[in-house]
């Protein structure tokens, strides 16, 4: 979409178009009349995913901590003729999570899809040097807030006969990035959250799956993408990261298409799966 949408890691899978089960004819708007919430969706991966869902016919509610970011992203996607609205949401605040869900219900009558993408990574360094305050912040936003937002959304999905949840974790849950200890741990926890929720929510016809992206060039991941602040690692330190990038940079369409595929699996049989996107 913009520079922040460039991808440093190439997808291991290609996007598959959804076919109508009865006729085998490709659907132009497979998510028509579906309502999707996407957190941290005014930039980077979240914005790219929101755009793709809307292109497939979903009515998308964007969210971000800052109103100006919400306004900018909504205007950009509405300018493409997409059905997109937005609201401020700090996922770590209960009142903001409630407002996000209430906004979708008020504007569109409910929620069918949730993409939980919000995360923080406030430090780079030795995990043994991480303070309790940092641990609390990372686990609060990356893990607890994710679980509580899903809890808030589930009743609305049940009213519509089911739904789909996609949690965005990280390949760091499998191959930890040096210097990002708390972040890696939080993303590993999301794998467990995915499996537990998938089992519990299956009887309610709600699918829960997980994406584990590799290194992606976004404003969030400046330390991995070559734009460094005084608190980010040096180029030499960056060389320590696992070789999961192709060195060329791929556009964000790969990542957003992969998320889009997960929320609209033909047959709706895909549950508690983790999809690495390298």
UniProtKB/TrEMBL annotation:
<dbReference type="InterPro" id="IPR036291">
    <property type="entry name" value="NAD(P)-bd_dom_sf"/>
</dbReference>
<keyword id="KW-0560">Oxidoreductase</keyword>
<dbReference type="GO" id="GO:0005777">
    <property type="term" value="C:peroxisome"/>
</dbReference>
<dbReference type="GO" id="GO:0042574">
    <property type="term" value="P:retinal metabolic process"/>
</dbReference>
<dbReference type="InterPro" id="IPR020904">
    <property type="entry name" value="Sc_DH/Rdtase_CS"/>
</dbReference>
<protein>
    <submittedName>
        <fullName>Dehydrogenase/reductase SDR family member 4-like 2 isoform X2</fullName>
    </submittedName>
</protein>
<dbReference type="GO" id="GO:0004090">
    <property type="term" value="F:carbonyl reductase (NADPH) activity"/>
</dbReference>
<comment type="similarity">
    <text>Belongs to the short-chain dehydrogenases/reductases (SDR) family.</text>
</comment>
<dbReference type="Pfam" id="PF00106">
    <property type="entry name" value="adh_short"/>
</dbReference>
<dbReference type="InterPro" id="IPR002347">
    <property type="entry name" value="SDR_fam"/>
</dbReference>
<keyword id="KW-0521">NADP</keyword>
